[in-house]
């Protein structure tokens, strides 16, 4: 029992460090970006982030968390989640791509069309890591997650 408590404590510490590093890097990136670009351009970035997050919500679907919480996970389960998340991310990107002109018209910012379409590609790439993150979470290997996320 002592070994398990130690492993949990170390996992919590690495997970906390991962959170601090991720949020800290985001805060620093946001401050640098705000200093380097005009307020108008920064506003465009903020508008894009809303749609980027919606795309991530669609593509995430909770399947990665289901892998972490399942008692028995087979290779078939991992493949199913990988391809499901990939399909959902493609769907999310297509929705973002098609909606981009309407978003630009809503905000009366024509340049948003291209920006939403390009930034939306990140949703697809984020879906590629879902299974790997779940496998690391199941193994309680939060150190590797923190290093990968920080890099």
- How would a textbook summarize the main sheet? none
Instruction: Tally the helices.
Output: 8
Instruction: State the distance separating the first and last CA atoms.
Output: 34 Å
Mean pLDDT: 84
- What structural class do you assign from the helix and strand content? mainly alpha
Note poorly predicted spans: none
Question: Helix amount, in percent?
Answer: over 70%
Q: What is the radius of gyration computed over CA atoms, rounded to a whole number of angstroms?
A: 18 Å
* Element order: H for helix, E for strand: HHHHHHHH
Task: Report on the architecture of this protein.
There is one protein chain. The chain has 151 residues and is mostly helical. The mean pLDDT is 84. The protein has helices spanning 2-36, 39-60, 63-69, 75-107, 112-119, 121-127, 130-138, 142-150. 16% of the residues are buried.
